[in-house]
Design goal:
Low-confidence stretches: 294-298
Radius of gyration: 29 Å
Helix content: 25-40%
Bound molecules: histidyl-adenosine monophosphate
Oligomer: single chain
Strand order of the largest sheet: 1-5-6-11-10-9-7-8
Distance between the termini: 77 Å
Structural class: alpha+beta
Strand content: 15-25%
Number of strands: 16
Number of helices: 16
Shape: elongated
């Protein structure tokens, strides 16, 4: 017969030893409950507007095959070259945490056969993105975006509608001081011709460029235009501008976009150096900047987007024109808080339950369920002992009514209904309490 091993548990000994707390990963933060009133505000406003504009919600995975971003965002972009969280799974697949949302939405569009759905397809999404960047204010390794994408329509009116919706979201959120920076980077054909001119121009001034730009000259010359180094910006100020080198179709497309924006009375700034950091764009590109801070540009840009007519094909789908936009929620939250936006905690729960003693606690637990069953949302701090500390919390939550059950009320089967604003109190029987609260909450 096998001998039984004697089990020695060391767990209690180890549990007693104090260990160093595990900290969050650098550049990755918690969003605490007190921040959520701003996050909820942003998400509620954005989602409502998107639905009004006929957009449907989509959620795609945070983890995708690395190849999706290499092919979609571009091999020689900062994002793919330096910023991806990529790893091999136990099964040997190369996967990455998504650095942005568009490529994943395009994958989903193709994989789910959305080209057979009635066009255009209008989608919105929100969620975390991961980029291994140097963390600083407004730049994190995990950030969140809210985005929109439209598939199946190449008309310039779509570009204008995307920009209009982006602008409207910011207006409704309450951020009025923004500027729309806009440019066209043409199609592949006009861009290739323009790139040659650009390389010729910068090669003559190569000694005046920063080290990164010297590399960009070989790998991705368009990105020279939006380098933030003073000396490079000086060189770029006299560089040839792509709008002067657009083919006829791209020129007409851009002209129409601007005419639509004029019609919508949207203020915009033509920015010949705006090229965006992702490779998939064609024709219209735009960013939303805090106004008056043009010099900080990408660093502080709230959001960006544009047209990407080749991406669906690049990723294996049929030729499908598309355009979209997304903004960084953290940056918007920071701006809102900086502007002093501090609505009181929106208390959707108007009733707060207060108890004293074990019998009262049991009664309150039952009352809590009864109120919830009657669609009255309630808050409580049922673990606390003192009535004073519970009323303090009720006050902080802006509760309209406190329902107090002390030892006497527990025996009498009654409740003290306290109006938190006037301090007036009234005793109501447990039997009538739901009807009474319904009446008062309605008021
Ligand atoms: P993006 O410009 O790379 O575009 O990112 C959009 C926004 O996300 C930025 O304007 C910024 O507010 C925010 N953001 C980016 N990186 C960080 C970071 N490290 N920390 C905090 N916020 C950040 C895109 O991602 C495209 N997918 C937009 C798009 C949608 N184009 C077409 N459709």
């Amino acid at each position: 017969m096998p001998r039984r091993k004697k089990q020695i548990s060391e767990a209690p000994k180890r549990a007693r030893k104090k260990t160093t707390p595990v900290q969050a990963v650098k550049g990755i933060r918690d969003i605490l409950p007190q921040e959520w009133f701003v996050w909820d505000h942003i998400l509620d406003v954005s989602e409502k507007l998107c639905r009004d504009f006929g957009f449907g919600k989509i959620e795609v995975p945070i983890l995708e095959h690395t190849e999706l971003y290499e092919r979609g965002v571009g091999q020689v972009t900062d994002i793919v070259e330096k910023e991806m969280y990529s790893f091999k799974t136990q099964g040997g697949s190369e996967v990455s945490l998504r650095p942005e949302g568009t490529a994943g939405i395009v994958r989903s569009y193709i994989e789910n056969g959305m080209s057979r759905w009635p066009q255009p397809i209008k989608l919105f999404y929100t969620g975390p993105m991961f980029r291994y960047e140097q963390p600083q204010m407004g730049r994190y390794r995990e950030h969140h975006q809210f985005g929109i994408e439209v598939f199946g329509d190449k008309s310039p009116v779509i570009d204008a509608q995307v920009i209009y919706l982006a602008w409207k979201i910011f207006q409704k959120i309450g951020i009025k001081n923004i500027s729309i920076q806009i440019n066209s980077i043409g199609c592949e054909e006009c861009r290739n011709n323009y790139k040659k001119l650009l390389v010729d121009y910068y090669e003559m001034k190569v000694n005046k460029l920063c080290t990164d730009c010297k590399k960009r000259l070989v790998k991705n010359p368009m990105r020279l235009l939006d380098c933030k180094e003073d000396k490079c910006m000086q060189v770029s100020s006299s560089a040839p501008q792509i709008i002067d080198h657009l083919c006829e179709d791209c020129h007409n497309h851009f002209k129409s976009v601007l005419e639509f924006l004029d019609e919508l009375e949207l203020p915009y700034v033509l920015n010949p150096n705006l090229v965006r950091g992702l490779d998939y764009y064609t024709r219209t590109v735009f960013e939303i900047w805090p106004s008056g801070e043009e010099s900080e540009s990408r660093q502080s840009s709230f959001g960006g987007g544009g047209r990407y007519d080749n991406l669906v094909r690049y990723l294996g789908g049929e030729d499908t024109p598309a355009a979209g936009f997304s903004f960084g929620i953290e940056r918007v939250v920071e701006r809102i808080l900086k502007d002093g936006f501090s609505p009181k905690i929106k208390s959707t729960r108007k009733v707060f339950l207060v108890q004293l003693g074990d019998t009262a606690r049991k009664k309150v637990l039952k009352l809590f369920n009864k109120l919830i069953d009657n669609n009255i949302s309630v808050s409580e701090s049922i673990g606390r002992g003192s009535i004073k500390s519970q009323l303090k919390i009720a006050n902080r939550l802006n509760s309209k009514l406190a329902l107090i059950v002390g030892q006497k009320e527990a025996i009498d089967d009654t409740v003290i209904v306290r109006d938190m604003e006037s301090g007036m109190q009234e005793i109501v029987t447990m039997e009538k309490i739901v009807a009474e609260i319904k009446k008062r909450v309605k008021k």
